[in-house]
Amino acid sequence: MSTSDTGVVDLRSDTLTRPTEAMRAAMARAEVGDDVYGEDPTVLALEERVADLFGHEAALFTPTGSMANVLAVRTLVGPGQEVLCEARAHIARAELGAHAAYTGLTMRTWIDPRGQVDLPTIRSLFAPDMGPFFVPTAAIAVENTHNFAGGAVLPLSDLRDLREFATEAGAGIHMDGARIWNAHVATGTPLREYGAVADVMAVCLSKGLGAPVGSLVVGSRDAIDESRVWRKRMGGGMRQVGILAAAGLHALDHHVERLADDHDHARLLAEACGVDPATVDTNIVVVERSDAAAVVAAAREEGVLISTVGPTSVRLVTHLDVGRADAERAAKVLAQL
Ligand SMILES: Cc1ncc(COP(=O)(O)O)c(C=O)c1O
Fold first, then answer.
1. How many angstroms separate the CA atoms of 275 and 277, rounded?
2. I want to staple 209 with a disulfide (CB 3.0 to 4.6 A). Which of 213, 220, 251, 307 is the partner?
3. Dist. CA 68 → ligand 1 center (Å)
4. Stretch 176-193: mean pLDDT, rounded?
């Protein structure tokens, strides 16, 4: 259903999509079993398919991207060790301290306005193991695309340079690829190339791909076996969950290439908001406004829902439920604000 059916254009997040009729039909047809017993054929098919897409050995279905991130990072970083990440990374800002609470790790951050890999700063932050003196760096986490940096794509060449450094330094790389599909469609970079630079990844089906629920941890067989134990420990062992995995398989079949439309719509909205569309890589537009809350309220009056992601930042996100006509209507409203 397009948001125009309700008269409201909802640009708050790409997590707001509702399953299409075809997706619901695929869910209804799904073969299921008890996934804690490893007996749900649809979950197994999804895990195998996603592992293969990224060229990794295995994958694990999780209810959320946040859980996938916690499980993935903890395969690389133990209690009393640190992970380095960009300051506005989802793992640092929006997972409510889960990595510290569950894993007992600490984080140090670098700042990049576009959420990019800043290798010189990462090198300077990197702490080798010095026994009882400093917290050792065990991993570096990157986010591709970077949500709070406006859906920015991390160039493959930077990721490869980071891979080289991390391997030399003996650190792991985690990639939060909640929107890796957007990066893939925007750049044409094969998913396997992204997979090749990371030891472990978290990828989401419930953002731009339009599934109602579902993310995966992707990595080595050992990392996934360990994550399966921790998923259960955290209360994330699910039973006949092939119903949800079927939505993910449907999304992979039908909703990846169409992300290009979301990217076009985002550029249209950027232009309307006075943001250079060339700076919009994918489906997220961040607009700096000193009166962010007032802009959000005024847009709501006109039936356009947007959100703040900081006191002076407004965020617009395009997705499956925003058609061309919705994007054009929202652009008109936003241009006036
Ligand atoms: C980059 C990124 N990583 C992880 C997540 C977490 O996903 P979830 O909301 O499924 O926990 C999000 C959610 O928006 C995200 O934007």
1. 6
2. 251
3. 9
4. 98
For ligand 1, say whether the CB of 176 is within 6 Å of any of its atoms. yes
Mean model confidence pLDDT for the chain: 97
Q: Percentage of the chain with pLDDT > 70?
A: 99
Count of CA atoms in the C-beta half-sphere (13 A) of 4: 9
From the CB of 307, is ligand 1 less than 6 Å away? no
- Measured CA to CA, the distance from residue 185 to residue 285 in angstroms comes to 17
* C-beta of 281 in contact with ligand 1 (< 6 A): no
Nearest C-alpha to atom 8 of ligand 1 is from which residue?
65
Distances from the Cα of 299 to the Cαs of 177, 191, 292, in angstroms?
A: 30, 37, 11
User: Residue 282 is which amino acid?
Assistant: T
| Token duo for residue 134 | 């400093």
Does 86 contact ligand 1 (Cβ within 6 A)?
A: no
Determine if ligand 1 sits within 6 Å of the CB of residue 215. yes
Q: What are the CA-CA distances from residue 14 to residues 288, 306, 315, 322 (Å)?
A: 20, 11, 11, 10
State in Å: Cα 30 to ligand 1 middle.
Answer: 26
pLDDT digits (tens, 9 = 90+) for 276-317: 999 999 999 999 999 999 999 999 999 999 999 989 999 999
Give pLDDT, residue 2.
53
pLDDT of residue 1: 47
CA nearest neighbour of 149 among 11, 284, 269: 284
pLDDT in tens, 188-246: 999 999 999 999 999 999 999 999 999 999 999 999 999 999 999 999 999 999 999 99
For residue 336, the CA-to-ligand 1 centroid distance in Å is 31
Q: What is the pLDDT of residues 251-276, one digit of tens each?
A: 999 999 999 999 999 999 999 999 99
Q: Is the CB of 178 under 6 A from ligand 1?
A: yes
- Nearest atom in ligand 1 to 67's CA: 11
The preferred substitution site among 207, 218, 282 for testing ligand 1, maximizing ligand atoms within 8 Å of CB, is 207
CA pair distance 253, 131, nearest whole angstrom? 49
